[in-house]
Specification:
This protein is of the alpha+beta class and about 300 residues long. Helix content is about 30%, strand content about 25%. The model has no long low-confidence stretch (mean pLDDT about 95).
Length: about 300
């Protein structure tokens, strides 16, 4: 039984893409927590040792190899940073954040070049603007998302990623051009709809549709260099984000679980890029939000 469980775990790691989404959204649900299958391996290892099962121990080499292949690289040391690298911060600040000023100061203290925020609502928006202004003189805010920059921003405009089922006013995406030292970069900030785990399965249709619209916008972007920052309500392993992960590079190093802040289980706050490499990604200390901020170093080609 232990050997069989080890083989099944390895198969789920390697062939997670064949788990159907049509049944309770199981595919995306599994992929959202795919790295946690490593805990199953640990439990099986303990049981195999207790049972003194050589067959089970040998079988565990399969899921160990699969997990290492998929996620082991994230644990390796990051390459040395270059002087032209961009440091970026992504944070869903929460519309219920009781300390926007403290959150803004914490983000500014990371020494980043770009800061992307979601769930910006008045009067907290005014606090973020005034607190970040001394270090980040350039900003673009559209709806509930915003971008603060040390470099000039131009051509800022809303990004239409609203699913068809949402009829009320809804603006959770923007695109702007940052004039960085290495040249112009199209910066996208997005907040995809939330997903819900219910008795009927994973409810993610709005998130999936919005991800497709965002992927189309990135594909149509004329500038070669693109950085996407956002609360995408999905992990990079989730097939629903393939419209983005098939077009953009994701973080090469770091785990950076960002949600929920009290006990992070998944990284749904993402940094992706085109014609650029996303180096190590990590989380910052908790703020007044239910998300942890993530910070990454981006090397522009």
């Amino acid at each position: 039984m232990l050997a069989g469980a080890a083989v099944v775990t390895a198969l789920l790691l390697v062939f997670h893409g064949v788990v159907p989404n049509a049944v309770l959204g199981l595919g995306s649900l599994l992929e959202s927590f795919l790295p946690w299958l490593g805990l199953v391996v640990v439990v099986l290892l303990v049981l195999a040792l207790v049972c003194r099962s050589a067959l089970a121990l040998v079988s565990l080499l399969l899921p160990v190899a699969a997990w290492t292949y998929l996620f082991g690289g994230l644990l390796l040391p990051a390459a040395e940073s270059g002087t032209d690298d961009l440091v970026v911060v992504q944070h869903n600040v929460s519309d219920e954040n009781g300390d926007p000023a403290g959150t803004a100061r914490a983000l500014a203290g990371a020494g980043s070049d770009l800061i992307a925020l979601e769930e910006l609502v008045p009067p907290a928006l005014e606090v973020y603007q005034s607190t970040l202004a001394p270090d980040y003189p350039y900003r673009a805010v559209r709806g509930t998302v915003g971008l603060w920059s040390k470099y000039p921003l131009t051509d800022a405009r809303p990004l239409d990623i609203r699913p068809r089922g949402i009829t009320e006013e809804w603006n959770r995406g923007l695109r702007a051009v940052a004039h960085a030292p290495r040249g112009e970069i199209a910066v996208y900030v997005a907040h995809l709809p939330s997903v819900r785990v219910r008795a009927s399965g994973l409810a993610s249709s709005w998130r999936d549709e919005s991800a497709g619209l965002l992927g189309e916008a990135v594909a149509a972007e004329e500038l070669n260099r693109v950085i996407l920052l956002g609360d995408l309500n999905g992990t990079v392993d989730d097939r629903a984000l393939e419209p983005l992960t098939e077009r953009l590079n994701v973080a090469e190093r770091g785990v950076a679980l960002s949600y929920p802040a009290a006990f992070p289980l998944a990284r749904i706050d993402q940094v992706m890029a085109r014609s650029a490499t996303v180096g190590r990604i990590r989380t910052l200390s908790a703020t007044g939000s239910d998300h942890l901020p993530v910070v990454a170093r981006v090397t522009v080609d």
